[in-house]
Amino acid sequence: MQISVNVNDVEYTREVEPRMLLVHFLRDELGLTGTHWGCDTSNCGVCVVWLDGTPVKSCTVLAAMAHGRAVRTVEGLANGAEPDPVQRGFVACHGLQCGFCTPGMILTGRWLLDHNPYPSETEIREAISGQVCRCTGYENIVRAIRWAAEHEAAARQAVPDPRADEQTRETAR
Amino acid sequence: MSTTAERTTPMGYGSMARKEDARFIRGHGTYVDDVQLRGMLHSAFLRSPHAHARIVSIDTSAAEAHPKVRAVITGAVLETLSLAWMPTLSHDVQAVLATDKVRFQGQEVAFVVAEDRYAARDALALIDVQYEVLESVVDARHALDRGAPVIRDDIEGKTDNHIFDWEAGDAALTDAVFANADVVVGEDIIYPRVHPAPLETCGTVADMDPITGKLTVWSTSQAPHAHRTVYSLVAGIPEHKIRIISPDIGGGFGNKVGIYPGYVCAVVGSIVTGKPVKWTEDRSENLMSTSFARDYHMRGEIAATRDGRMLGVRVRVLADHGAFNGTAQPTKFPAGFFHVFSGSYDLRSAHCAVTGVYTNKAPGGVAYACSFRITEASYLVERLVDVLAYELRHDPADLRMRNLLRPEQFPYHSPTGWVYDSGDYPRTLQKAMDIAGYAELRREQAYRRAEFQATGRGTLMGIGLSFFTEAVGAGPRKEMDILGLGMADGAELQMYPTGKGVLRLSVQTQGQGHETTFAQIVAQELGISPDDIDVIHGDTDQTPFGLGTYGSRSTPVSGAAAAVVARRVREKAKIIASLMLEVSPLDLEWTQGRWSVQGDPEAGKTIAEIAMAAHSSLELPEGVEGHLDASCVYDPPNLTFPNGAYICVVDVDPGTGGVDVRRFIAVDDCGVRINPMIVEGQVHGGLADGIGMALMEVIAFDESGNCLGGSFMDYLLPTSMECPSWELGETVTPSPHHPIGAKGVGESATVGSPAAVVNAVIDALGPFGVRHADMPLTPAVVWRAIQGRPLRPDLAIT
């Protein structure tokens, strides 16, 4: 069957078997290998991507179900060369070791901060609780997401109010 | 998390961010399953549904007729190539594809190569195998029973399921110590079968080039050089025509040390089809067929004086090795380094006797960050110390403090033959107790117990300790080998004319941060930035020979090798600098990262300046060659002995048996810390492993040998909700024989933490008279222990 899926703002049309899993579509058909596969049973979460803005486990979503919808993977998270603050947080806080769970964790972390910019530690732990990491003991993943939250909060405060800017220019005149 | 730092690390650059992270955060890592080659085929295994059965017939004709199938390989096909059996890392053989019998559920029976993943799986259903089901051996305690089915009738003359007997320590002396002791307590302790379960399963892409005869294998391998040698010996392919590439690895934990039938079959598939063949196992295959861990059934005893002076430990172990003896450990030690079980205590004597047996379970045995079975050893002795404390009504912290080795006893010759290099155990334990607020915790526990006993409501609080001593960094090569390959590892450092360089290592990272840590070691020795050194690893065509990464050996062995090659470069740089500065080398001193003229610090040359001169036309004295390179093969003079004190605080719900880990304090002494951030990350991960093993992980079997832990629905791993915020501390007693004093830390927390968690839960259950219960302490096990009806969680036979 033919499906069209928007992945990271690019439209892809492919002929696939109806039973093809989204994770295999992304990895094998599109070559987007940042999305990993780990368990078959929706337990480990290394395959997490966004489907229309919501994290899903792509090992239990058919590629056909993504037809006409938008998928975002870890490859589509950075703003050009500039990593997302959540990605930077993972580096700053040593939130990854082998890197296998990292793309899914980062996508969930980004989703969390988009919906809850000031999460508590418990809220962060709950957000990633459907995903497994075998290396970090989760501590530094939690810190990485909190690092991003704090940096984004600081950045929001640092952005000058455009109206205040206008007044400054008025005064200067 | 809070961290109590002992002192700033003497290594430069300290907790720098990891160099490898840039690719991983963007999804640009390259794991084996990410490798896509032109014309690549996919593969899948048909596996045995039975634990023990004779193969009557295999009909592959329907599968071969599938339009997308390129090859179907059976044991009979492999027999014609003399590849049906392969050597294990323990001098046994293992079936690549079953020919005569299947010996565990999930064993490889046939291998299908097809055009895509889905077609390969489809074709499995078209293979018809007729089995004659045999009685299986599931419970290791009955493996040596008279009349038990003989699993390994492929071994000529084999009439039982016995593999080996092995012992360490002085049996007579230990028995004498026990005979004269005031108090002897014993306990049957099972360390059940668990699985390392890295999130990336095992896999390979094999590409035999029919023109050049060169075999390139991308493989999930923790030991690519050893794999190359084994492939050559098994398949008869000249070793220089084999290139093993172990790219980014999604976690190893020992699971990726061995060679699996999938690797061999992918190679055969590539030879047969003339195309690259990818094999990626699924999660059930990983859990059911690749290297498990533990499965030690231990009868341990501890002898002491009435006032709590520990005198001796002895243990009999029944080791369940599964259907093939496939443990990966130095040849001389069939029970790994289990004989470090006398632990951290000043004992008069210790003795262990280990018997290995075959059962109808998957082979393997040394895996899951165990430091060659030190996890079992540490768990045993730390559980026994708590059993002793229980019987003597003695505080377990105080009992440990009284009996720990004292700093002046190092180097310490243990009753089983080890020479512990360094440590300050009492200070380490005291530090953990200080961070925990131990006395206050005990007061809280007393208060809550009284409240519980008065009202019958509330949770039960438990405080558990463990003190572990590891032995890591195998060799030395004269003592230790794997399949005859001495455990020493090479390193090469090449400095380029502009002062940048590459360090080539035999060891292979699975997330430990080698690309950063080893660059830091070289940078520190040469006065350059870690950014100026790229670490090359995981490709046998580009790196020197060595035994690989497991048993926490990378920093003790290759970390030492990195320092040695850097120092050799520095010494050669001294000669070049003396020529450049026109002074005698004797007048030079290494200060602030450059060779300077003594008394004239302004006159000096950096490594970058010297590297350019070394590659220039500068006239060199007799015997001094150009360029600025060095290599070495590091043969460790002894193991290193990381140690640590762990304290776990739990709350147990007596109504459900549910355990909540409230706090976990870990004070580690791994010698000098190169990158403290990475060290702490290693500890965090191991602590989570400990919670997993103590509370939820087990590969159990039913009485027919059906594996009950074959998916992540059944084999439970700790998530962010079960793990507390870790509280870490450190002590530093540098290893006296390691060039930079480092000891290794990759497995410390996995070794030390299970006992702390279990001791905490058992401590919580004290009011119910519970002295021991076996892992995993699931709600059912805890609840049954409270009811006085212990449950065997490793068998579905209750």
How does this model look, in words?
The complex is a heterodimer of chains A (173) and B (798). Helices cover 39% and strands 13% of the residues of chain A. Chain A has helices at residues 22-29, 85-92, 102-115, 121-127, 139-158, 162-172, and strands spanning 2-7, 10-15, 48-51, 54-57, 70-72. In chain A, helix 2 crosses helix 3, helix 2 (85-92) crosses helix 5 (139-158) and helix 3 crosses helix 5. Chain B is α+β, with helices and mostly antiparallel strands and 798 residues long. Helices cover 27% and strands 25% of the residues of chain B. Chain B is globular. Mean pLDDT of chain B is 96; it is low at 1-10. At the A-B interface, helix 1, helix 2, helix 3, helix 4 and helix 5 of A face helix 1 and helix 16 of B.
Features:
heterodimer, A: 173 residues, alpha+beta, 5 strands, globular, disordered C terminus, B: 798 residues, seven-stranded mixed beta sheet, 34 strands, 25% strand, disordered N terminus
Tally the helices of chain B: 18
Widest sheet, order of strands of chain A: 2-1-5-3-4
Oligomer: heterodimer
Mean pLDDT of chain B: 96
* Helix and strand run of chain A: EEHEEEHHHHH
Rg of Cα set of chain B: 27 Å
Low-confidence stretches of chain A: 168-173
Structural classification of chain A: alpha+beta
> What percentage of residues of chain B falls in helices of 4 or more residues?
25-40%
In whole angstroms, the N-to-C terminal distance of chain B is 40 Å
Q: Would you identify the regions of chain B where 5 or more consecutive residues have pLDDT less than 50?
A: 1-10
Quantity of strands of chain A, as a count: 5
Distance between the termini of chain A: 65 Å
What is the number of E strands of chain B? 34
- Main sheet of chain B: which strands, in order across? 4-8-2-15-12-13-14
Largest sheet of chain A: 5 strands, mixed
Strand content of chain A: 5-15%
Q: Assign an overall shape of chain A.
A: globular
Largest pleated sheet of chain B = 7 strands, mixed
